[in-house]
Amino acid sequence: MSIKYKFPKNFWWGSAASATQMEGAGREDDKGLSIWDLWYEKEPNRFFQGISSEVASDFYHRYKEDIKLMKEIGHNSFRFSISWSRLIPDGTGRINEKAVEFYNNVINELIKNNIEPFVTLYHFDMPLEMQYKGGWESREVVDAYGEYAKTCFKLFGDRVKVWITHNEPIVPVEGGYLHDFHYPNIVDFKRGIQVGFNTMVSHCKAVKEFKSLNIQNGKIGVVLNLTPSYPRSSNIADLEAANIADLIYNRSFLEPVVKGEYPKELIQLFKENDLLPCVENGDKELIKNNLVDFLGVNYYMPRRVKAKENMPNPNAPMMPETFFDNYEMPGRKMNVYRGWEIYEKGIYDIMINLKNNYGNIECYVSENGMGVENEERFIKDGIIDDSYRIDFVKEHLKWLHKSIQEGCNVKGYHMWTFIDSWSWSNAYKNRYGFVQLDLKTQKRTLKKSAYWIKEVSKNNGF
Ligand code: BG6
After folding, report:
1. How many other CB atoms are found less than 10 A from the CB of residue 430?
2. pLDDT tens-place string over residues 282-294
3. What is the reported pTM?
4. How many distinct structural domains can be found in the chain?
5. Going by DSSP bridges, is the β-strand pair 444-446/379-380 parallel, antiparallel, or unpaired?
6. What is the CA(423)–ligand 1 centre distance, in A?
7. What residues sit in the active site (predicted)?
8. What is the pLDDT confidence band of residue 1, given thresholds at 50, 70 and 90?
């Protein structure tokens, strides 16, 4: 078989997942609660078919079986997150020895199977006790996160070499403080900006702790969802609108983590609109001196933008969208289930941007994937024929390959996700896995895409 798209040697093939979305054992072995448990208790109707994360895909008990399957389908790396509230049930203080044992087992099992563990410290799951103190609005919580990060480096840093501070730090801002899809369901742009800034400070504290520990061969980065902003047209007003969207949704995190400071234009925009966050002494230096070693890039869809067409209601809460309108491009290709546009070239545009404007920093695709409803209807000869997922990945990989040919510093490709996972308020509505999960029996069955990715990984290309 001839390989047309060959990837660099030691390319990372694998997938990503998160604690809340796969572990289950939500109330076992002394795990503390997180905001997801509280929100579910308060408003179960907010979760698709009323399903909580308490059981998920039961990775807590089935990690051995899952890691075996990962190996079988050619993973050489896997990103998972540590649940802060499992490890430190109150957010600070006492460490849960059962959790230490569990994460040690997972790490050791991965290594035994030649799968490099990539560990995320925070993937949307604020410990409840920390939320009671104000969550990311509170500097006490920022400090607690720094301590938690240090604890993780000390416990697991002898074996885990790739660390990620936060997964998509803009999402808890969007979900929890702007657009009402995460707890605490606050709608307040200014508070959201404070949350974003405090998260940034917490990230830097973790990087600082990491560097001070001098972990051999270790590196630390962050995972950002760098959704490119495309203007509707080259009209100056459309360009300006897309620039603002890019500043707020991408460069707000990208610039401080890679360049050590916020974009001046963003500061200006926030200043003019009385949105600037409180900054404490030493924050600026902390941000300046704690740059990342690499970036994880999550890419699902583009953001299309046009100039504002109607004056916003002066009494409505201010939003990023106060400054631009989203644009539905006629003829766009859609994943109709998730309601997200599919635009494969976006992955190339992101990488070229990182190469040209961010020092060609080392990076990898940390998430890309396609959520589809009712996949059971595609069962053929006992397995789900998800050829649409194979096409989706293939087309993205072609563009990624092109970016590498052109000199982009891309080290790998991780799919979202290994096994159908609990997707926050969408619960199990959209299935993303290489592996099908039977919710009733917890039975795992490889989908067609799993067999396909196995070959891709084996041949280091396709
Ligand atoms: C990313 C997250 O935003 O997208 C994952 O890191 C999430 O946690 C994934 O599951 C897919 O999005 P969703 O909303 O369909 O689950």
Report:
1. 22
2. 999 999 999 999 9
3. 0.98
4. 1
5. unpaired
6. 6
7. 367
8. confident
